[in-house]
Specification:
Ubiquitin-like (UB roll), four-stranded antiparallel sheet, Receptor-associated Protein, alpha+beta, 70% helix, 430 residues, extended
Length: 430
Amino acid sequence: MSSFRYQAVESGGDATRGVIEASDRKTALMLLSQRGLFPSTLEACEADPSKILASEPSRALALPASAGAALLPKGEGLPRRFGVGRRIKRKEVTMLTREMASLLEAGIPILQALNGLFEEEENPALRQTLAALCDSVRKGASLSTALGEHPQLFNKLYCSMVQVGEEAGALQNVMTDLADLLEHEDEVRGEVVAAVSYPVFVLAFGLFTVILLMTVVLPRLFGMLEEMLHSLPLPTLILLRVSGALNHYWPLFLLLAGGGLLGWRHLLKTPRGARWWDGLKLKLPIMGAVFRAAALGRFARTLGTLVKSGVSLLPALKIVENTIGNLVLAQLIGRVAEETRGGDSLAAPLRKLGMFPKNAVQMISVGEETGRLDEMLLKVAHIEERHMRTRTKTLISLLAPALILVVGALVGFMVIALLLPIFRMSQAVR
């Protein structure tokens, strides 16, 4: 057990201070909340709690008038623009959501929960964001409004679910559902990244090896070969010309590659270009099925989580339309929302537009008829995500050997092109 010295405000407005024993800071905050105390400071100490009264009045304390004053150290202001090395990772937002859900389930008020998370956070950027959230909530803003001030971290889906939880009086349950959703998305994303990492490493290492040989090693060898032979074999000549071009015009190639990358990024930022790329991804021969399964799984899981949290179907569809991540499917979801507005069920427009497989649409239809739409949507999401994972693993298992063959073929061609003149010289010597 550890001892914590606190200064707090009672429910009646009187200031008090004392020492409390708890296993950690979060537990101390929870115990103080159960006693009806709103701490303004809480710090670890080694004092004997029996020597300090647990509720010693102290009128001289300069505490804020608000009973839920934020535990902000001196000099800790609102968040500034994040600099280099101050990036907030997605997994940190997920962990923050899970911890917030746990604190709310323990009965700790929102402001005190934010205070506790602020005190224990180590990332400076996220710490400043929590400071801003504490400041907004202390001034009377709701948690969803405070989160909406940071759209780069908390998107519309996140804020909408929190708002529904506040209005329904079940914020702790909604935060738990939201944490489950974020953790599942992180898990799927991690599996895809882990599966792709090996083929990407093979390709990058192969390209690095080829470029190093073409620009550093081969020009010196070919310089000697040109002096010794009047005519080089065709493979050697091709390799010589490519190596010479890379060696003499590499700044131009870098400039063209950089310009092409910038042009591609600019194209994807335009609505027409982004819509074209999203449509192309869905039509690719092998990868198209993977992209479609991933997008539909996200659609079903997000919509099911929103419906489970108490969001009406039409607003939930609008939220999913803005968060699905594919403009072509988002346009189809908008058409589904319009037809749903006219009184149709969800399954009817989905069946007409052909967004889902027939068995998935049938499950959604059964969910609407039985009043278990959220449950069926989550089951559909599980099926689509399982298909996406299976197809991804199959594709990656074929991609890695294919890349190895491509790199091996390039290196083999270079070796053959290098050995042919050597064989010709050996025959001339005989």
